[in-house]
Design goal:
Length: 445
């Protein structure tokens, strides 16, 4: 068992104990952090998290990563890989005058690329004020075999954004408008503002690049964006919107990423866990290294509970472990067709509070990191013995529980490390303090 390594540390005493903020530095620092994602990219560990202007789930939030090339012993300096548009930033949860990224989830594609899915929100408070969302407006349409992004004028007139950024009107005639980057609207060569923002520039306590709102607006809803790295996390692509490929009308204004990691199956399919507020968990999948994404319309929802994580057993069944609505057993679902349809099963005897958890498979065993108390406290690695028959996980035997920490424990993420250990990245303070720790697999099973 290794000592804890501090990966991300907040520097603002508004969101973290002042004594702990003294550990924040150039390598690990920012105002606030939440939401761990950890992946082993063919021998290189990649740790990702939300780097935010406050401890809230809104405001100015970037995505940051750190890398380790020696099995988690040392880590690179923090690097920001996704930057939202903003018209005002303040180190306070009172400010929501910014778009924001949140909830990273990574997987390693068969070709070695790292795939990251992440939520992107226009200026709003996300799920914490759904009255600000536009539930009845279409964000995408399909014309002539293309999926087009829809934006709106002040009078509600729709405009359609082609994949090359050219904007057409309802009669499919070209306009003088075009869209570049992450929501930057132009009329000819004139920059008009950002379609994800609402007004004029304001204060800038985060030293961000500020802009102002555009006359045409995107629908206020949750979008799913993808980033890729082809060099084990050294460089990353610009965020790409994939929402139009996977969104169903029944999802409503929220189809979001379940943070943690996705799953690359033995046959090379990438399956990523998502969820909605209306119909619970959903899965999307790619058979071409993340170039395109699909989702079953016949059975689009897993009927699990909110944020969930996936494993694959030796027989090819995909098992999903969900989040409880309160302290109790863990919801479970299974797919016997590689993520295309799902069946809800009986809950398994893994007790945890209402909180995201992480799961990985290790041979015939499941390893799960979760809070071990009735509230978000006392992190535990629980090991279960798979006793499957036709995908039935009701007979999982939970055989051991190894302490990760004592005290606060919330979101976490597991990965297998090449030295025969399992690494766990976890929140050990209510905000802004994310640690890494490893355990030898043969010592916890």
């Amino acid at each position: 068992m290794n000592d804890n390594t501090l990966l991300f540390c907040g520097r603002s005493p508004k969101f973290l104990n002042k004594e702990l903020t003294a550990q924040s530095n150039k390598s690990n620092g920012g105002e606030a952090f939440r939401i761990p994602s950890l992946i082993n990219a063919n021998g290189v560990l990649i740790a990702a998290a939300d780097r935010a202007s406050s401890g809230a789930d809104w405001g100015y939030i970037e995505i940051a990563v750190r890398r380790s090339e020696d099995f988690g012993k040392t880590w690179s300096e923090l690097e920001v890989i996704a930057v939202p548009p903003a018209r005002e930033t303040r180190i306070s949860d009172d400010c929501f005058s910014s778009g924001f990224f949140i909830d990273p989830c990574m997987a390693v594609a068969p070709n070695g690329d790292i795939i990251m899915l992440v939520d992107f929100w226009p200026e709003c408070k996300g799920l914490h004020n759904t009255a600000l969302l536009e539930k009845g407006k279409a964000a995408y349409t399909h014309k002539n075999g293309e999926t087009l992004f829809v934006i709106y004028g002040e009078n509600g007139k729709p405009y359609y954004v082609k994949p090359n950024g050219i904007i057409i009107d309802g009669g499919e005639a070209p306009t003088d408008y075009s869209l570049k980057g992450l929501g930057e609207l132009y009329k000819g060569e004139e920059y008009l503002g950002n379609i994800f923002l609402n007004g004029a520039e304001g204060e800038n306590e985060m030293n961000a690049k500020l802009t102002h709102g555009a006359p045409l607006k995107a629908v206020k809803r949750c979008y799913v964006y993808m980033l890729k790295s082809s060099d084990k996390g050294k460089t990353w692509s610009e965020p790409k919107d994939i929402t139009g490929e996977i969104l169903l009308e029944s999802d409503g204004a929220f189809l979001g990423v379940a943070p943690g990691v996705g799953l690359t199956t033995k046959n090379g399919r990438i399956i990523m866990p998502l969820y909605t507020l209306k119909n619970s968990s959903a899965a999307v999948y790619s058979d071409d290294n993340g170039k395109s994404w699909k989702r079953s319309e016949k059975c689009p929802y897993a009927k699990n509970t909110g944020e969930w994580q996936l494993i694959e057993d030796d027989c090819g069944a995909i098992i999903g472990f969900g989040r409880q609505n309160g302290y109790g057993k863990t919801p479970v679902c299974v797919s016997l067709d590689c993520g295309e349809s799902w069946k809800k099963l009986k809950k398994t005897g893994l007790y945890a509070p209402k909180c995201q958890k992480s799961v990985i498979a290790a041979g015939d065993f499941i390893i799960c990191s979760h809070a071990g108390a009735r509230t978000r406290k006392n992190g535990v690695l629980s090991v279960g013995k798979l006793c499957l028959k036709n995908g039935d996980v009701s007979k999982i035997k939970w055989i051991s529980h190894t302490a990760i920490n004592s005290g606060f424990f919330a979101y976490s993420c597991l990965c297998a490390v090449n030295d025969g250990s399992v690494g766990v990245m976890f929140e050990s303070q209510p905000s802004s303090y994310i640690e890494y720790k490893s355990f030898k697999i043969n010592e916890i099973i």
